[in-house]
Specification:
The protein is α/β, with parallel strands linked by helices. 44% of the residues lie in helices and 16% in strands. The strands form three sheets. Strands 1-11-10-9-12-13 form a six-stranded parallel beta sheet, sandwiched between helices. NAD(+) binds at residues 125, 187, 210.
Length: 432
């Protein structure tokens, strides 16, 4: 498909918003086999698969407290300072998501409220391959701790030397996490879902990963294990008008494309000249980037689109429902009113997507593959159950009792009606 599209009609949009798909024959069958083996053989299966896929089988899956503390010594001061800044900002943003209990009197004698109860056991999968994502540990563990989760279990692949990435362990140390296990891929998801001798079974699994991890999360969720989302390849859409800074937009597109060959970037502008200027800046910046080869593969999936009318441009972007959306314009806040579907939005010329990935405070665990139409990113709410309560006194049952009887009778549920009728009769003369 031509990657430069001029004023596409809405009938073309369905094809333009398709995500890239990596063909993986027998993926589900392979992953199901891994899951079943872990269910049967536990720790040994996790170790064997680690040897098969990662080239190392740990003697002990658990990362000791000494290993966690020792990792801090190898982290330079500048990185430590950066991590603490990110930690503080993420904590500030997520602490404001705590919902206070509010008791509501719906009618005299009837009081209702909702209370957030933390999920007790949560599993966090932290990728540790070519780009160990210690930032993801910040993004997942901080809201889990704010929510009050009792047991936070972390799995992450060991490196070739058999050790977990030092920055991941440093983050674990400053957050007081001590249940860290060496395990990656589908086998780690299976261990979290069903438990092993060493790794505790959890109630909900969080975290991104490759196609094997995503497939494993899909399969265990079908077996009743809760998950955060099915995270696909990373994606970015940029809306840029005449007030954008082409150099900045080019940098944003390149930064997203370096995630992987299946990542996708989409640029929507109001005229062709803007695209030409941005492409020129891409050619200037690309040669110096260390992940140049990955970016070039990813750019095969790019879409550069001219849509002259603002509202129509955002209608297209809402159809695409991107994980990340940058509005590169001096009137970004005004244009933001058009946004209906997006995981996270970055407003103005000084708001790079990288800020959300690391240190602005918002969460970078976001819906992909168009699921931003109906789903939000990870938040404190992701780590709690919201339980409703109601208390009804004598006056309350009198006020709503007749309505309940009539509705239950209309639905043919006599026992439901009786549960109210018997109370109405008893409550006339007795105290409760």
């Amino acid at each position: 498909m031509n990657t430069l599209i001029i004023n596409p009609s809405p009938s073309q949009w369905a094809d333009l918003i398709k995500r890239p798909v990596i063909n993986a024959e027998n993926l589900e069958e392979t992953v199901a086999g891994i899951i079943n083996t872990v269910k049967q053989n536990g720790d040994e299966a996790v170790k064997n698969y680690s040897l098969q896929f990662h080239g190392f089988a740990p003697d002990n899956l658990w990362v000791s407290k000494d290993e966690i503390k020792d990792a801090s010594k190898s982290i330079n001061k500048d990185l430590k300072k950066a991590i603490h800044l990110a930690k503080d900002n993420i904590e500030k943003f997520h602490q404001h998501q705590i919902e206070k209990v509010k008791k509501i009197t719906t009618v005299s004698g009837v009081t209702c409220w909702r209370k957030s109860i933390p999920i007790e056991n949560v599993g966090l999968y932290i990728p540790g391959g070519s780009a160990p994502l210690f930032s993801t540990l910040l993004m997942l563990s901080i809201p889990a701790k704010i929510a009050g989760c009792k047991n936070i279990i972390v799995t992450t692949p060991a490196q070739n030397d058999g050790n977990v990435n030092d920055a991941i362990l440093y983050v674990a140390n400053i957050l007081g996490l001590d249940k860290i296990y060496k395990g990656g891929g589908a086998q780690a998801i299976a261990a979290l879902a069903y438990g092993t001798l060493t790794i505790k079974k959890v109630d909900k699994i969080f975290g991104p990963g490759n196609q094997y991890v995503t497939c494993a999360k899909k399969l265990v969720s079908a077996d009743g294990i809760a998950i955060d989302m099915l995270a696909g390849p990373s994606e970015l859409a940029v809306y840029a008008d005449d007030t954008c800074v082409p150099e900045f937009v080019a940098a944003d597109l390149l930064s997203q494309a370096e995630h992987g060959p299946d990542s996708q970037v989409i640029l929507v502008t109001t005229n062709k000249k803007i695209i030409e200027n941005i492409i020129d800046k891409i050619h200037q910046q690309l040669p110096s980037l260390s992940r140049k080869d990955i970016i070039e593969q990813s750019f095969l999936n790019r879409r550069f689109i001219v849509i002259e009318k603002e509202e129509e441009a955002f209608n297209f972007l809402n159809d695409y429902a991107p994980e990340h959306l940058i509005i590169a314009s001096k009137k970004a806040e005004q244009l933001a009113d058009y946004v209906k579907n997006a995981g996270s939005v970055f407003l103005g010329n000084l708001s790079p997507e990288s800020a959300g990935d690391y240190a602005s405070g918002t969460n970078h665990s976001l819906p992909t593959n168009g699921t931003a139409r109906v789903q939000a990113g990870v938040s404190v709410d992701s780590f709690v159950k919201k339980i409703t309560f109601q208390k009804i006194n004598k006056k309350g049952i009198k006020n709503i009792g007749n309505a309940i009887e009539k509705m239950a009778e209309a639905e043919g549920l006599e026992a439901h009606k009786n549960a109210v009728s018997i109370r109405l009769k008893k409550s006339v003369n007795e105290k409760f």
